[in-house]
Recover the amino acids of this structure.
């Protein structure tokens, strides 16, 4: 090995060693701030995500529940699976969350064997109003800019594969028996149910595992990320057609501009790429209630492009983007938007 | 020797980036108020070498509809040359450009979110584009990290 090579290798190894100990310490607070605080708040009081710094919550869930929730997420319920974090990093985050409240409960790992049939009757009567007829939970995200903080937190989706994987039977049972202060979840014992009844409900909830994919975890299928139609009209006429078609679908044209406008000197834009922006304020408000991040779809837009003498109209495919939000309630809105885009593109090029 | 170098660099890269990844959405919370975070965002975008091409307000009628705030914006940004070259080679990318970050108030704090460009690899499987997505991802992380760590 040449001396120069040796020096470079030593430098690289030193860099690696300098980086490694900093990573190995796994500061839970920092990891939480980077990965969790955006949704759950710096202090765990909740936001887009549910509040975590609730004594009753922390007293009823084992660390394994927090760990598995971070690792596997909640398919279709916004909470992503943090597959990028290693076990030690997740444990550090769990340790930080745990620092906000009581230690984890001591729960037996043994499964509960109740009468799921009877549990279903009780579930329908006592749980379905909040958790949904099939345990699908409440729509939307947690308290956020669109939901005042004095509103109750959204009921979790009990049929979600992520929840069922993370929550042991005994945890579900303890929650049913004791309720959770600070949330609408009341003690079922205080409501007059027996421990046997509660076991039956737990067994029914566990039976959701046998269903073929909870509705909350189903994602849209899309064939292409971009919707494209060719226009037989000239560029200017096609732009006008797009505007008329959007207005015809109850949208308001808010702007039209060249793609590179704002990035280049005025007058030097590529005039062969034009974007038509349009909005329907009612749709915006409805979508924001489902997920505050939907601004990433906004404003609605069709791009008209001229390339090699061919005029095309293009848009994003909302069905393709929807899974990135991991919010199954957005699926319906994205399906509707897909239909609207298709209709506008088709009408503009007819 | 080359193999060892490559291995060590890969290790360095993995160690550095392991804390930065999230899922298919990149989100950060800034403890700054909305106007301050908005300024920090625009400044961070410029520092990263991009041009803010437009800021779109998404606030018409929000408070009248019962929302707690109307502080919601979409910030578009890009590099003109890059946009020109990419859309010439890959016109299918047009509807997704320029890139954007949404920024909205949550009480006294501010949330920022962007789609993770790397998740576009499965939309547009192409080595050339993959390199761009990877670079954008790093840039967006750097931009948002700069906003997140900006002092009050």
């Amino acid at each position: 090995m040449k001396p120069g090579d040796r020096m470079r290798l030593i430098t690289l190894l030193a860099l690696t060693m300098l980086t490694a100990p900093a990573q190995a310490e796994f500061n839970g607070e920092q990891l939480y701030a980077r990965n969790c605080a955006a949704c759950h708040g710096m202090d765990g009081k909740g936001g887009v995500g549910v509040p975590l710094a609730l004594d009753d919550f922390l007293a009823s869930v084992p660390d394994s529940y927090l760990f598995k929730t971070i690792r596997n997420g909640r398919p279709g319920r916004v909470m992503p699976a943090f597959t990028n974090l290693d076990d030690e990093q997740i444990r550090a985050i769990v340790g930080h969350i745990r620092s906000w409240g009581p230690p984890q409960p001591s729960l037996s790992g043994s499964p509960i064997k109740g009468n799921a049939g009877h549990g279903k009757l009780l579930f329908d009567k006592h749980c379905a109003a909040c958790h949904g007829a099939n345990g699908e939970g409440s729509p939307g995200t947690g308290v956020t800019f669109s939901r005042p903080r004095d509103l109750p937190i959204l009921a979790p989706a009990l049929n979600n594969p992520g929840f069922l994987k993370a929550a042991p039977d005994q945890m579900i049972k303890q929650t049913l028996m004791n309720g959770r202060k600070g949330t609408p979840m009341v003690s079922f014992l205080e409501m007059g149910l027996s421990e046997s009844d509660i076991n039956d409900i737990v067994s029914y909830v566990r039976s959701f595992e046998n269903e073929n994919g909870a509705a909350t975890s189903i994602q849209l299928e899309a064939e292409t990320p971009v919707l494209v139609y060719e226009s037989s009209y000239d560029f200017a006429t096609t732009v006008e057609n797009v505007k008329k078609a959007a207005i015809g679908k109850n949208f308001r044209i808010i702007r039209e501009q060249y793609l590179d406008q704002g990035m280049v000197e005025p007058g030097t834009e590529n005039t062969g790429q034009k974007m038509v922006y349009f909005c329907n304020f009612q749709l915006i408000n409805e979508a924001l209630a489902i997920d505050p991040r939907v601004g990433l779809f906004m404003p609605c837009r069709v791009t008209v492009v001229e390339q090699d003498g061919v005029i095309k109209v293009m848009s994003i495919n909302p069905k393709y983007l929807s899974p990135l939000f991991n919010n199954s309630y957005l699926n319906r809105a994205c399906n509707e938007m897909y239909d609207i885009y298709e209709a506008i593109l088709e009408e503009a090029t007819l | 020797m080359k193999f060892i170098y490559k291995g060590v660099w890969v290790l360095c890269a993995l160690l550095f980036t392991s804390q930065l990844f999230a899922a298919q959405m990149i989100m950060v919370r800034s403890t700054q108020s909305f106007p301050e975070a908005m300024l920090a965002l625009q400044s961070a975008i410029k520092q990263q070498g991009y041009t803010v091409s437009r800021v779109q307000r998404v606030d018409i009628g929000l408070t009248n509809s019962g929302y707690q705030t109307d502080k919601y914006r979409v910030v578009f940004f890009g590099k003109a040359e890059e946009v020109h070259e990419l859309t010439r080679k890959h016109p299918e990318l047009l509807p997704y450009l320029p890139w954007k970050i949404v920024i909205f108030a949550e009480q006294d704090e501010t949330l920022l979110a962007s789609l993770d460009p790397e998740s576009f690899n499965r939309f547009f499987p192409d080595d050339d584009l993959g390199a761009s997505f990877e670079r954008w991802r790093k840039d967006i992380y750097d931009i948002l990290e700069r906003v997140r760590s900006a002092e009050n």
Remarks:
- The helical segments of chain B are 2-17, 34-47, 80-89, 127-148.
- Residues 24-148 of chain B form a domain with the TATA-Binding Protein fold (CATH 3.30.310.70).
- The first strand of chain B starts at residue 25 and ends at 30.
